[in-house]
Amino acid sequence: MDAPANNIHTRAIAEFVSGLTYEQIPAEVRARIKLLILDSLGCAIYGANLEWCRILREVLEALDATRTTSIWGTSCRLSSPHAALVNGTQVQGFELDDVHRTAVLHVGAVTLPPLIAVAESHARLSGRDLLTAAVAGYEIGPRVGLCMGQEHIGQGWHSGATVGVFSAAAGAARALRLSPDGTVHALGIAGTQSSGLMAAQYGAMVKRMHAGRAAQSGLYAALLARQGFTGIVDVFEAPYGGFCTTFSRSQDRFNLAALSAGLGERFETMRISLKFYSCVGSNHTTLDAIRDIRKRRPFAVEDVDSIVVQASQVTLDHAGWPYKPEGLTAAQLNLPFCVATLLIEGDVFVDEFTPDCVVDPARIALARKVKVVHDPAITALGATHRHKVHVEVYFRDGSVETETCEAPRGSEHSFASADDIARKFRKLAEPSLGKQADAILAMTLELDDLPDCRALIDLLRLQP
Asked: 291, 313, 320: which is closest to 401 by C-alpha?
C-alpha cells in the first residue's frame, strides 16, 4: 500500500485491530466485555417493539428481499447491512444503552450489529473470536472520541454517529480477519461515510437511527476492504478533508496522539458505563443527586419551589434546554423533563416514558421549575468531569438541600454488578422472548466456550 508518511495513528490502530488476539486481552476486560454485550442485546430486544424501529424495519423489508441476517427480538431477517442498520437503531432505540462518557460514544450500538452480522452471514466466529473483535471495536471508537474532545458534540455533531463508524469498522474488520492494510482501508472507507447532526435530539425519530447508520457504514467498510476496495489511508491525519480537520473547528481542538495512546495496555472498554435510567447519559448525575436528596429528606412534588442544576457547558447544550413537547426523543434527552419524571413517577426507566407522557401537564409544569445553568468551573475540569453537577432544591418553606454528583451509578467509577446487569437484561428481554432470555444470558456470559456464535444468534431471534 502506498501510504503517506503521516498516517502513523491510522496505521497503529489498524495494526492493533488486525493483530489483537483473545490471549492478549486481560481477564478483567474479557469479563467486562461480556457484560457490555449482554446489556446491548437487552436494549436491542426491547427496542424491536418501538414505533421508530418498527417503521424502519417495515420499510426495509419492503425494499430488501434478502433474508440472511437476523433482526434481534423479531422473526425478521434482512441483508446484513440492513440488519446492522436496524439492530443498531434498536440498541440505541430508547436511551438505555452503554456510553463512554468522556468520549461521548454509545459503543455497543455501533460495534455489535456489524460484528454479529459478520458472525451470522460472512464468517464463522467462535465465542472467543467474537469477544476479541468486540474488544477491538470497543477500543477504537472511544479513542477517536477522546481525540476529538467534547467540543465535537458541542459544535453540533452527534458523536455516536460520526465517531461510531470507527468502532463499527474496527470490530467488523477484526471479525473478517483483515490484514493491517485492509483495516487501514476499512477505517478510511468508514470515515468518509461519517455523519450525524445533534439537532435530531429535539424530537426527531432519526436520532435513534444514527447508531444504526454508523453500524451499517462500518460493515460496508469492512466488507468492501476485504475485496480490495480502497479508502482514505490517512483518514485521521489528512490536513485537508481528513476526519479530524473536517469535524473540528480548528487544529488545536483535537489531539491526534489520543488515537493510539495506550493501545493494548490501557483498555477503554473498562471506562464504558451502563445506564439504569432510560434517558441521555448527561442527565444521570442529576437524577442520582436528587434521589440522594430525597433519601435523606423525603419530600412531595408540592413542596418544591425550584431546582437549579449547575453543570458543564456540554450538559447545558446537550440536555439543559427549556422543554417543549416534541416527542419521546426530546423528552428522554431533556434534563428538566427527566427530573420531573423522577419526582412524579419515582423512576426514569421504560415504563415512565409512554407516548402520552410528553404532554403530561404535571411533568411539564414541574419541568419549568428546573433550571440548568452553566458552571464554568465544571467545564474547566475537562471532558472526564463533564457530567459532574451541583444540584440545589429550593423548597416552599424556604429551606434548601444541595448535592454534588461526580459520576452516576453504573459508571466506570462504580460499575454495576453482574446481578444488576442481569436484572436489567431480563426486564428488557423477557416480555418479548420469555425463557429465551435466560438462555441468551447464560450463553453470553459463557462466550469463551462457545464453538460457533450462530448458536447465540439463533436465540436472539423470536421463535415461531
From this structure: 291
